Amino acid sequence: xxxxxxxxxxxxxxxxAGGAHTWRIPSLLRAANxxxxxxxxxxxxxxxxxxxxxxxxxxxxxxxxxxxxIETVLAQPGMTCGNNCPVLERRTGRIVLxxxxxxxxxxxxxxxxGEAPRTxxxxxxxxxxxxxxxxxxxxxxxKKRSWNWYGTGPGHGVQLADGRLVIPCYHNxxxxxxxxxxxxxxxxxxxxxxxxxxxxLVSLPSGExxxxxxxxxxxxxxxxxxxxxxxxxxxxxxxxxxxxxDEWYHDELPEPARYAGGCEGSLLAYDEETLLFSNPIGADExxxxxxxxxxxxxxxxxxxxxxLCPGISAYSDxxxxxxxxxxxxxxxxxxxxxxxxxxxxxxxxxxxPLTAPSTQG
Length: 361
Hints:
The chain is mostly beta strands. The chain has a single domain, classed as Neuraminidase, CATH 2.120.10.10. 2% of the residues lie in helices and 47% in strands. The strands form 5 sheets. A 7-stranded antiparallel β-sheet has the order 1-24-23-22-21-20-19, with no helix packed on it. Strands 10, 11, 12, 13 and 14 form a 5-stranded antiparallel β-sheet that branches. Strands 2-3-4-5 form a 4-stranded antiparallel β-sheet, with no helix packed on it. The longest helix is centred in the N-terminal third of the chain and has 5 residues.
């Protein structure tokens, strides 16, 4: 693996500032007017997954060079709102933002055991994220009765060439009151986000996932797996996300060892030949060494890539810049992966690992 590269970076959300204890769960989206939107969770009470959590954004009108003030997208008193996963409906310019919600005093363990509710919602914007529609629940359409915990994305969704919106998700099925098994799945909309349905499910153990339409037209999904697996899961759909034809373990994509199920990652269709993927490859005890890799065969194999952040780092999301650079918004810290900031890195085209040979997984 190549060493870390020198990339331009700036902190967009700094822990303890702006009315939040911690900022987590980055998402990047380019609006129809060209603005770059950086979404995240504002964790008001503490760094954990419960408590008062709002969804916010910052806006850049110059392709990520400078940024406006923090804008609130979702804030519901007494509620945890998160797992922000936006997608642009290119035909109309509408931004469709899916997310999940539960009581702020709720416990993830209780939700996983089926003892507390967690619901799925969508909001939309027809003015490039300046204002948002009232939340609309889609739980009944996208969550089976046997599913307890549920997560949309996080990161960003994808619109296929035929206009279908695809949001990568994950869920757990409890057994005898324990945490149960966990699997990634897709939800689909063929009418611009008005109605939704459950699509393909991954049978291998899997969690938070990301998806992209490859140059071969197939939909490729990449997901976290269990701690005992130690690497990512891949799946491919040739029917627009209705079913998965192939599933496999990505032996060449390691996961951080300390965490059950590794860490979230992000996919980007960079050009007609290349997919990019970011995730922390980890060490014995921590999420760290955020790495950017390239695939030249639609996600079947990945090269060794380059290290974007050699230190403690976690969740990330990718977006192509107007000049061919890549923007990566990621979590970093010193005491832990979320203790410091959400940082935006800009990787110049000349520094991208686009021509490095792939290593078959």
